[in-house]
Specification:
Keywords: Membrane, Transmembrane, Transmembrane helix
Strand content: 5-15%
Transmembrane segments: 35-53, 330-351, 357-383
Number of domains: 2
Largest sheet: 5 strands, parallel
Number of strands: 5
Distance between the termini: 31 Å
Radius of gyration: 57 Å
Strand order of the largest sheet: 2-1-3-4-5
Helix content: 55-70%
Structural class: alpha/beta
Bound molecules: guanosine-5'-triphosphate, magnesium ion
Length: 486
């Protein structure tokens, strides 16, 4: 392009304006196409205008917006709006977009056959666009009827205007300058956004947020977990203690009921039976404690504390059933007295009833008296032994209870030590992984900061020449009175 004489080629002439500021700027990166873009809002009549223009200017190619690819600049833009209503904001955005790289924009008010007040609409549209940007201030407007319901199409003004404009070399130069203006402004905007870290902002925000979340989540989890473990162990202590006491008192009730119906024959085996029941209760409580503490450990994902090496052995002394000589003697004396009394009364009664049976009466009285004596002494002994056993069972279960309470307290304490130590170790590992995550985030944040700083440096270096070029382009486009300014 540099080997083309600027006086001959209007595009090269425009490029030379920019290259004079910065020789590095040799192309706006836009492909000029020798076509006329006909576009407009929905149902404005663009297709009809395009068809009519093709008909009237067969040598000139026309396209609709879908036929252009990004980066292609048409030689002119025919912007078709309906005469039915003035431009809206979205229509204005559309004309901005269509004419990004093209200076020559012609406003067309269509369907003038159907709308008598089209001139007012045309003037209003011109005013709206002139207000929007300086470049539209001198934009030409014409009214057309490309596909009238009645009569011939009215297109002459547009054809005439377009033919005249497209023939001007200055138009192509200005189109090129427009492309330069758009491209330079976009590049400056890009540098500014990069330098301000605009693209990174969202990512950096998200990273900071995540960093805070991780740190806070970690702190919370830590305190929550240790509080929960403490309270669970506290609960275990209370519940297991209650369980042990409960088992002791129910076994006591059960044994005391047994004593109430105990015969002398089963009395000897009873002591051993009590020992066996105490062992059962010890096993039950031991299992209950192991189970409960295992559950607590499982809830926190920790290893269950080991069961007790040796279940407790409650110290239960033998009942004192034999040391009763004095009482036995007393009972014997009383029993004998009672027996004698009965024997005497029976023999007297029999003698009174049948005097010839005096000897037999004495014998019967003696036998009855003896039997009663034996029975009274025996029953008295049995009742006394039961009372002794009853007291003994109460003592034995009390001993069992205190042994078990101590056992429960010891095991919960041991479990507390083991579980809190293990929890601390787990937390240490987690803290390390959290620190690792945070370090990774910090590293990424640092990278972003460095990249943003680098972009800011580049912005400060690159923007001044670009801005100068843009100013020159703008001075050329709007400062002097070009053809569109007539
Ligand atoms: N009265 C009258 N109606 C017209 C004129 N031009 C177009 N129309 C009508 O307006 C409607 C839209 O016309 P198109 O040319 O398809 O408009 P468009 O902008 O290409 O529409 P879309 O591509 O669908 O957005 C059709 O019903 C046409 O008949 C005109 O000059 N006069
Ligand atoms: Mg169409």
């Amino acid at each position: 392009m540099t080997d083309v004489d600027p006086d001959q080629d209007p595009v090269a002439a425009a490029d030379a304006v920019v290259a004079a500021i910065d020789p590095g700027l040799n192309s706006p990166g836009v492909e000029p196409r020798d076509v006329v873009l006909v576009t407009g809002p929905w149902l404005a009549g663009a297709t009809s205008v395009l068809a009519a223009l093709r008909d009237r200017m067969p040598q000139q190619p026309f396209v609709e917006s879908t036929e252009l690819v990004a980066g292609e600049a048409p030689a002119a833009v025919v912007f078709v709006v309906s005469a039915a209503a003035p431009l809206t904001e979205s229509d204005c955005a559309l004309v901005d977009l269509a004419s990004t790289y093209t200076d020559l924009v012609i406003g067309v008010v269509s369907k003038i056959d159907a709308h008598r007040g089209w001139r007012e609409i045309r003037d209003a549209d011109a005013a709206i666009l002139a207000e929007r940007a300086g470049r539209y201030a001198h934009m030409p407007w014409v009214g057309v009827a490309a596909a009238p319901d009645l009569g011939e199409p009215q297109l002459d003004a547009l054809v005439e205007l377009l033919t005249a404009r497209l023939a001007e070399a200055e138009v192509r130069r200005r189109n090129r300058l427009r492309a330069w203006e758009a491209r330079l402004a976009a590049v400056i905007g890009r540098y500014e956004a990069d330098g301000a870290g605009a693209d990174r902002k969202a990512r950096v925000e998200a990273l900071r947020q995540r960093r805070d979340d991780i740190a806070r989540g970690r702190r919370l989890a830590r305190t929550e977990r240790s509080i929960a473990l403490r309270s669970q162990l506290q609960q275990a202590r209370v519940q297991l203690g209650y369980f042990a006491r409960n088992r002791c008192s129910s076994v006591r009730t059960e044994l005391q009921e047994d004593i109430a119906g105990l015969s002398r024959r089963r009395m000897d085996a009873f002591e051993e039976y009590v020992h066996r029941r105490a062992d059962d209760v010890v096993d039950e409580v031991d299992d209950g404690v192991t189970q409960h503490l295992g559950d607590v450990a499982a809830e926190f994902g920790l290893t269950a504390p080991p069961p007790a090496a040796q279940p407790p052995q409650p110290v239960i002394e033998a009942p004192s059933l034999r040391s009763r000589t004095l009482e036995t003697r007393l009972m014997a004396v009383l029993g004998v007295g009672f027996g004698l009394g009965v024997a005497f009364a029976v023999s007297r009664m029999l003698v009174g009833a049948a005097p010839h049976l005096a000897v037999a009466g004495l014998v019967v009285g003696a036998v009855v008296g003896l039997l009663l004596t034996v029975w009274v002494v025996g029953v008295r002994g049995l009742l006394r032994d039961r009372a002794v056993l009853d007291r003994w069972v109460a003592d034995a279960t009390a001993a069992l209870r205190s042994t078990l309470e101590e056992f429960v307290a010891t095991r919960v304490l041991a479990a507390e030590t083991a579980l809190t130590t293990e929890l601390a170790a787990v937390e240490e590992t987690e803290a390390q992984s959290t620190a690792q995550q945070i370090a990774e985030i910090d590293a990424e944040l640092r990278e972003h900061a460095i990249a943003t700083a680098r972009a800011a440096g580049q912005r400060d270096r690159r923007i001044p020449p670009l801005q100068r070029a843009l100013d020159t382009v703008r001075a050329d486009l709007y400062g002097s009175s070009g053809p569109t300014a007539e």
